[in-house]
Amino acid sequence: MAATRARRSLLGLFVVVLAAAGCGDDSADDDVPSLGADIVAAVAAVEAERGAGQEYFEVTAAALVTNVFVAVDDATAAIPYAFIDGELLPPEPRLDGASGFTFGADAIAFDADTVLSQLAGEVPDATIESLSVEGGDGGIVRYVALVRSEVGGLLEVTLGPDGAVLAVDPL
């Protein structure tokens, strides 16, 4: 569990840095609806590359990149991929010692076009930095948006597949 939390923290930092690098103006709001579509497209690209039925630890979409962590060897290692501008890049080096819950592509059940719409409407002055799909117990998933307030604070917002806000945690 500690390895999963550390991986999530490092990934979150990586996503925030990448997202901040690409969010110097209000155009980031134009990318919000595409984050869900980027997750779906990235998973489809991995399944086309590796074959259907892959298991994932996490998929995170930000303005510049979608990171996909494929679980391998009974979820004891991960193969990270980056999906940029509709293209799946070659895999990064294997990450041994991974642990945590996994999910299959069929567990992703949100409407990619609207999952962030409600959140964007509720916090119009904030920036949605990323959207993640994370594995949960029994192959379920949770959808988590990283939101930066207009004054710079970060919130982790857990969403339902319909975009309903289920929980908000300050980071």
Structure description:
The protein has 171 residues and is an alpha+beta fold. It has one domain. The chain is 29% helix and 34% strand. It contains three helices and ten strands. Strands 1, 2, 3, 4, 5, 6, 7, 8, 9 and 10 form a ten-stranded antiparallel sheet that branches. The protein is globular. The two termini are 19 Å apart.
Annotation keywords:
about 30% helix, ten-stranded antiparallel sheet, about 170 residues, 3 helices, alpha+beta, 10 strands, single chain
The assigned structural class equals alpha+beta
Helix-strand topology string: HHEEEEEEHEEEE
| Secondary structure: helix percent | 25-40%
Give the count of structural domains: 1
Strand content: 25-35%
Number of helices: 3
Shape by Cα distribution: globular
pLDDT averaged over residues: 84
For the sheet with most strands, the description reads: 10 strands, antiparallel
Radius of gyration: 15 Å
Low-confidence stretches: 1-29
List how many beta strands DSSP finds.
Answer: 10
Distance between the termini: 19 Å
